[in-house]
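Long-time lurker, first post.

We've been arguing in lab meeting about whether zinc ion would sit comfortably in this protein at all. Half the group thinks yes, half thinks no, and nobody has a model to point at. So I'm putting the question to the forum: if I give you the sequence and the SMILES, can you give me back a predicted structure of the complex? Inputs are below. Any interpretation is welcome too.
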Amino acid sequence: MRVTFLGGLGEIGRNCAAIEQDGRIVVVDAGLMFPEPTMYGVDLILPDFRWLIERRDRVDAIVLTHGHEDHTGALRYLVKDVNVPIYGSPLTLGFARHRLTEARVAHDLTFVEVADNERRRIGPFEVEFIPVTHSVPSAHALAFHTAVGVVVHSGDFKLDLSPIDSRRSNLSRFAALGEEGVTLLLCDSTNAEEPGFTASESTVGGALRRLFLERPERRLVVACFASHIHRIQQIIDVALQQRRKIALMGRSMEANVKLARKLNLLHVDTADFVDIENVGRYEPGEVCVICTGSQGEPLAALSKLSRGDARNFSVGAEDTIILSSHPIPGNEWSVGRVIDDLHRAGTEVIHSGQEPVHASGHARQGELRTLHQLLRPKNFVPVHGEYRHLRHHADLAASMGLADKHILICEDGDQIDVTRAGISRAGQVPAGFHYIDGSAGDLDERPLEERRMLAEYGVLQITAGVDAERGVIAQPVRVTTRGWFEGEHDRDVVDAVTTTVRDAIQSALKDGIVDDESLTKIAQRAAGRLLGQKYRRQPVLLAAVVVL
Ligand SMILES: [Zn+2]
Ligand SMILES: [Zn+2]
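Top reply:
Settle the argument with this. Predicted structure of the protein with zinc ion, as tokens:
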């Protein structure tokens, strides 16, 4: 039995693992990651799927733990090459199918819905789908019954004992598996640094109720993740208690609410909704708007509202905006800017830094200890986290008595072998970032590095023409720049480059060098040396010396 980690170990995002026995492979999740601000032009980051694609004949299925993008968002790229049945809860598959349909790759795919606690044959394994609580409904932990014992993958989870839908994590099943014996646990590490227990989702409803009650005359606009159906349910319940109408804003909000109502996971009457373009007909205290964009995404509803760019609706002094969310690492800056713009528009803004309007979906140390205690795994690998989260989770497992040789901290690309005796490192496969630029397609590191240089240092272009027969410069050296300051200092640098390049070309001509390729190289090298050594700059250099 072998596990190959293709993503999610060393970063929050692009979760993907391959569980393998007798040469047959079952893939757990295929998620994406959102880029950092300095990954210019990058829209998405995927796992490197080459290892899987090379073995596509041996892949039996893709199993999804839950419907978040960091677990399902890369499916539309993977299924083009690896078309195998996709298993998950009806909601998980509903979210995934919606994305796959948008990307026009859903037509010949097979989706297999599974029920809570169902156990079924998938590839070489019996796989159990164990209910867990998380920030999206219908999430599952997975138990693989393998030739070397049970392997439990926690998925993303928290142990919420008062969830909105009363669907609790199946702790008694975990305990029973612990009695039977668990060979390996792979477990969510997102909140492994945090002591205590994550607040129940139901605490958010109380906070929202109080904030709404204190503002009966104001219009309330609440932003949250469109997949967070339980949060949406609580916002709707609080609004309806105040006899407010509900308006939805944002495409994914509308689509997800529709799907969740169809699956009977969200309870609200059609009569309680009004169209967003009709919100203006109501007094502010008579409506509540639920919108997307709580992560500061520039094209989502909240950003548009903050800039006054939304088509059918605008916010101002009579609005209170509640960000029922917490910025994902990397999004703090964009969220901060949206909050600033909302203040500029005159609204009142309430966020999770001021009021308990958000609860995490991930287990803290107390819950992680509980799961470890129930399962008492013989071996443990922390998953789903940045390196420090994995480290803290490994320490937690050690503090509960697991010997060091039975704990491995793995990173993307690592493979482990699992036997009844223990786990060991098996090798490594390629697992670097696979960048997607929506307008240009796939990117590798090189253009990205150039984009960073462009952003940091700008461009410097050199042109000149030479008369080969007479061995002189016939069209003078011209230096133009982009992304440079217009001040005196930069002008001095440009003058110095011009002089240096002219001298270099002239001395090359004296040496009898008269082809444009060599002269271009000489010009470029002279400019690069001067800029690097004297001015410590590395603009992207474009040179063209032509022989006339
Ligand atoms: Zn999740
Ligand atoms: Zn996740």
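For your lab meeting: The pocket of zinc ion (ligand 1) is lined by residues 66, 68, 134, 156, 361 (CB under 6 Å). The chain has three domains: 2-197+360-437, 202-350, 458-547. Whichever side wins, do check it experimentally.
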